[in-house]
Amino acid sequence: QVQLVESGGGLVQAGGSLRLSCAASGGIFSRYTMGWFRQAPGKAREFVAVISWSGGTTFYADSVKGRFTISRDNAKNTVYLQMNNLKPEDTAVYYCAGDRNYLSISTMSSRYDYWGQGTQVTVSS
Predict the structure, then answer these.
(1) Which residue, 7, 32, 47, 97, is most buried by CB atoms nearer than 10 A?
(2) Distance CA 125, CA 87 (A)
(3) Residue 120: its H or E element
């Protein structure tokens, strides 16, 4: 049974940084496309970033491009989201997601098979 567990969230001031981690178990992590999504209060879940199984391809939402970096360490079964220059509008619950189709790169949440329970990121002014 595949399990994804996010960590690294917290409260930071605007302009600060956080590094989120997502640890996977129970599956073939190295063959999963991995993505990050977020959901702010009162808003729909939105795409943040995605990385291919090999780490060779990444794609970002326009709202985070240039500030966030997605990466993965397949030896550790972990995907990361480095968030720099955080803004109050980045406040949300951040979710890690996995797609069993390792050839797929998608911004659509419906394409992902596995989800973590989320980690809260709060950015204050």
Answers:
(1) 32
(2) 8
(3) strand 119-124
Give the per-residue pLDDT at 57.
95
Q: Cα(first)–Cα(last) distance of the chain, in Å?
A: 40
Distance from C-alpha of 66 to C-alpha of 122, rounded to nearest angstrom: 20
4-52: pLDDT as tens digits: 999 999 999 999 999 999 999 988 888 899 999 999 999 999 999 999 9
User: Buried b / exposed e across 40-64, counting CB within 10 Å, b at 16+?
Assistant: eeeeeeebbbbbbbeeeeeebbeeb
DSSP, res 37? E
How many alpha carbons fall within 13 Å on the CB side of residue 7? 4
| Nearest CA-CA partner of 99 in 38, 24, 46, 45 | 24
